[in-house]
Amino acid sequence: MAKQRILSGVQPTGNLHLGNYLGAIRNWVEVQENYDNFFCVVDLHAITVPHDPKILAKDTYTIAALYLACGIDLNNSTIFVQSHISAHSELTWLLNCITPLNWLEKMIQFKEKALKQGENVSVGLLDYPVLMAADILLYDADKVPVGDDQKQHLELTRDIAVRINDKFGKKKEPILKLPEALIRKEGARIMSLTDGTKKMSKSDPSELSRISLLDSPDVINKKIKKCKTDPLKGLEFDNPERPECHNLLTLYSLLSGKNKEEVKAECSEMGWGQFKPLLTETTIEALKPIQEKYQEIMDNQGYLNGVLKEGKEKAEAVANNTLSRVKKAMGYLTLN
Ligand code: TYM
Question: Is this structure's pTM higher than 0.90?
Answer without folding.
Answer: yes
